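Memo to structure team: turn this sequence into structure tokens by end of day. - J.P.
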Amino acid sequence: MLKTKLMLAAVTLAASASWAQAEEVNLWVRTSSAAVLQALAEKYNTAHDDTVNVTAVIAEQMVPKLGAAIAGGAPPEGAVLDLIYLPTFAANDTLEDMTGFVEGLPYADALSPSHIRLATYDGNIYGVPALPDASIIAYNTDLFEQAGLDPEKAPASLDEIVAAAEKISALGDDIYGFYFVANSGSWLIYDFLPHIWAADADILTDDGREATIDTPAMRETLEDYRTMWQAGTIHPTSRSGNGNNAVEAFASGKVGVLMTGSYIVNLLTSTYPDVNFAVAPIPGPTGGQSSFAGGDTLAMIKGIAPEKKAVIEDFVKFYMEPEQQVFITQEAGMPSRTDLAEEAYANFDPRNLIAYDILSKARTPYTYASDELFVSRTGPFLNLIQSAVFGDDVDGAIETAQEDFTKILDRTNP
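Reply from structure team:
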């Protein structure tokens, strides 16, 4: 009888273990990150009994689609979001608190600071870095040398970029000193705002509730850009082009300095190997350096079942392992952990380390109205840059931006 009971108990435990090992979780990810995250999920699924299913969602549809799914009571267990949206989802009480899990990781202090900051609301952490990136400048070393500039010395200030752009543009009618994507708010927070941060200023208060547009750093930066535009040293398609146009222009060898991101190193070396270039942090008007910390953060939807929560936490631990961090670096350009530089970049172009090292100083605007303030094509940030750089009234552009920012913040702050 005892033997029978023991056998039944063993069968019950085995069945229970089997059931516990058969969990499936669904992760929604934006299309730009889908390939890497799908590959990581496949690696995880091969090595585990649990399954992580990845669903790609068009980036522009992620926020409204996820919001609708949550409101309708049928969301995925987790989502990998552009980090700029974490404050809004956290403030709306739609994300699972991950504070204990994140702080319990042995490498917690090595996680991208800006990703953790954007995932923090009311003292709690609601996400963990997944695929970070950072903004930098790239400069054509051949053009620098031809213009009498030291190709081994990166511009240490925006003022130096202005001077370099003038000398490079003088090399020929079809050569331009500078390129930035001017018609996209997303691009401008990526590569314009770091000038402001490098000067120890900001466009918002730390809590994201008030606008601080009118600063000496903002005025100096706008004036430098305006000077380059009026001098004809900015590539003409900067005003209307996109990121692909920017890469193509730089890859043609006819642009001296490009405002870009960490992805550029692997892209140029693999696709345009004949371009000789170096990269550097984004400087402020008179010095300093900073970067925009971009990329993705993994979050869980509030109310997730404990057993499914455990699977997602296990998946995070899996992709944070050194082997997977090397894979992420290979595929996306930058690991989630800042303590793995030597291992992650051992077999890659050392220029990647420039962006990696600046990640600790990188920032991201903390706001509950990212789309309205920064992303919208009719938003106040894009209007500020367009009006001040290409228009005639810097003072008026700054004043209008301050007013429009304030109206939006007053309406959207929780």
